[in-house]
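# step 3/5: fold
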Amino acid sequence: MNPVRLMKVFVTRRIPPEGWAALARAAEVQVGDFSAAWIPRTGRSSLTWCRPTPPPPSPRGRCQVEHWDSDEPIPDKELERGVAGAHGLLCLLTDRVDKRLLDAAGANLKVISTMSVGVDHLALDEIKKRGIRVGYTPDVLTDATAELAVSLLLTTCRRLPEAIEEVRNGGWTSWKPLWMCGYGLTQSTVGIIGLGRIGQAIARRLKPFGIQKFLYTGRQPRPQEAAEFQAEFVSTPKLAAESDFIIVACSLTPATKGLCNKDFFQQMKKTAVFVNISRGDVVNQDDLYQALAGGQIAAAGMDVTTPEPLPTNHPLLTLKNCVILPHIGSATYGTRNTMSLLAANNLLAGLRGEPMPSELKL
C-alpha cells in the first residue's frame, strides 16, 4: 500500500471564524487532490490537526493544518518551525516572508496566502524565483478602509479628540467664537496620493461634502478613473502646495518609501491637514513631527506608523494636533471575516492547483 500524501498547511495566527469555517469544511471532505479531518492535538501555543485513523487506500492525500493559537504575532523561531516542510502558508501582513523564512519552509512550499491587500511583507522576487503562487485580498477591504480614511480626516480636521478631552477635564466653560475651531471640507482642495481602488473610494465618499477640486498623483495618469471626480493629475510638489487636505492611499514601493518628508511638508499650506492610511514607511515620521510641532502644517491623522505598534513614548504622541489610530482601516466584523474567507479559499485553491479567487500575478 502506498503511503497517503500529506499536505501540510501552516497558519500564522488565529483568523476570523468564516476563514476557519472554510478550512474546517475542507477538512471534513475530500478537496481536489487532498482530504483531511481535524481533531485537536495540543501543543504549546499551537494546534495541529490530523486524521485520527489511517484513511483507506486512495491516490488522494490528506491535509495537516497547524496554526499559532494566539492573537499576538508568532515569534520568528516558532514561525520557522511551523512553516518547515509546509505546502501552504496562510499569513498576515505582520509576518515577514523573506528568503530566510522561505529557506526554512523548504521545497514543498507552493502556496502563500496573505490576509491582506498589501504585499510589501512578502519577498516577491524570491517567491517568484521559487515558483510559489501568492493569494491576497484586494477589493474586499476597500469600503471599510475608505470609511476609516474619511472618519480620520474629519476627526483630525475638526479636532475631535481635543474637544472630547476638554469636556472630560473641565476645559469646556462656555461657548466661545474661536475656541476649538478646525477646518471644514466645503470648497476645499483635496489631494490624494494614489488613486487606486481605495483612493477612488475615498474621493467618492468625500465628493458630497462639497469638495471644490480633487488633485491626485501616482505612477501615471488615470483619466478614466479620475473622470468621476474631475480629478487633476499633478506632480507631487504641486499636490502638496495646493491641497487643503492630503490623503495618502498609495502602495508602499521603493518609489513611495519616504515620499512624504521634510521637503514635502515644507511645500504644504500651514493650514493643511495630512492623513495617511497606506503604510507607515511612506512617511518620514521625524520630519512629520517637526512639521507639526513647528506649525508648518496644521494637523495630521495616521492609521499606520513605523513601527507598529508605535512606542508609547514616541514624540508624535505628545502632540495635540496629531491623531494616531492602531491600523484599523479594515477593522469591521464583516470585512475581516470576508478577508479571512478569501485568504482560506485562495490557499485551498492553490493547493488543489486551481485558479485562486484572488491571485497576485508575479
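# step 4/5: annotate
The longest strand covers residues 61-68.
# step 5/5: archive (pending)
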